[in-house]
Amino acid sequence: MISFAVYDDDGPASEWPLRHAHLLGPEGVVVAGEIAFENGVIHCEKRNRASAALGLQYTADGPGVYILETCLLPDREEPYLLSLELARRRIMLFLVKLEEWGLFDLPPTDPVMTAFEQARQGFTKALVVARDTNGRHTIEQDRLARKALWMSIDASEQLSLRRADRNASRRTGAECGQTAPLILGCTIHTDRFTEPLRNVVKESFDFITLPMRWSELEPEEGDYNFARTDKWIEWAVRQARIPVVGGPLVEFRPRCVPDWLYIWENDYDTLRELIYEHVRRVVTRYRRVVSKWTVASGLHLGSNFSLSLEQIIDLTRLCVLMVRKLHPSARIQVEISQPFGEHSGADTGSIPPLLYTELMFQAGIEFDSLGLRLQMGDPEPGRATRDIMQIADLLDRFACFEKPLTISSFGAPTEPPDEESLGLDRAFDPGYWRGEWSEATQAEWLTNVVRIAYSNPAVTSVCWHELCDKASHADIPSGGLVTDAGRGKLALKRMGELHRRLRERRTLSDLDPIENGAARQTA
Prior knowledge:
By secondary structure, the chain is of the alpha/beta class. The protein folds into two domains: 2-166, no CATH class; 180-503, TIM Barrel. Helix content is 36%, strand content 17%. The strands form four sheets. It has an eight-stranded parallel β-barrel, surrounded by five helices. It has a five-stranded antiparallel beta sheet with strand order 5-4-8-9-19, with helices on one face. It is globular and about 75 Å long. Mean pLDDT is 91; it is low at 517-523.
């Protein structure tokens, strides 16, 4: 067993929310175990004696409220100090990335290295501070460790953005002819089809994604309704002349599954036949106008339908082969939902994202790109907030498969979640990045994610998850670029600027600061 002492301002904490808590083994893979809090200590009971790390949501004072992780730690009777171990892990990650990204030439006077040195010294102070007469950790040690933690998070984000600015030269300047530019897209929910929205899309994006959710296309078995999707596709292809990405074709989230399909949830053979027919029908209809298909999304989550590992891989293969046969010239993408993988510890039917990706390669499934779904700030599983360094590290880990990557859906809200959506226990409180979610925070977060993606050679495109707030079946109610009343947000203005710079192969490092203020009316 491993355990962690936690403190509040008065001493050992009397209560501590274990939001998004999970245990991790080697390679960051979530492992099964029991996590409980009692008398100021978090107890972690593993199913073996191997070293493990704890991941959970933690308030890092200045930087925000994130899911953070400790290093792999061996069993011992004495509790570790949670704040100290979280700081240790972040300092280690900084040093690892400093080497991986080839940034050891940064001088000690560089602001990034100065920030890191302050964090390192703060960690050292916390490490050597005297304990109480019983040999236990103290409030002072916890205070110093928390300060070192938020300083190390800030330094690591600075390092990520410094690397982003340095690596961006591969798509600008002398090297611009060697690498394709990053392209920007937006997901369109088809319930709105107004001229101002179409103008926004045409001005600010290189492509659009149409979700084509099964629940919307075939709400009643055998009764398809393509009218709303047809409108957007016809406009995109004939008037705007921008590419269309279709799908996910198969996704088992509750809002994506038609009610009638649940009749067959325990009959895999029939379910497979229905999926086969659905994919055939949709791809056949749109194969002349869609250039890329997201054939499946989040099958590895094991949510909503109970499928074995073999069945998950079989359905993935089926979707890829069907689209390849019906539309040979199209590019095929498999989307990874909840790519950080904390879900796989709570659900025995799920597959860790990296393992699922590896299994697809082992099974010989020939897809063209991996899509990562990065939605944060929403009280749903897998959407808790992570910092920019964690996003950069995630992209590096998936880039190791040497397959083109896309951020197929990324987004964050402009408002904190309401109390009703959080629930009484606030179990899925998503936290926030640098401050409570607002228009300015959303725009700044968007900017940094695009900068990180732009600097990673494996990433070919990014796609914002929603054009409008409160669209039908919207994933995040306030996650659009345009308000429900039709006003363009600060993030829309920034997206347009990013789009222009990327087209011109200009640097993203000298963008003007985000300023709160009125944005233009669009609809």
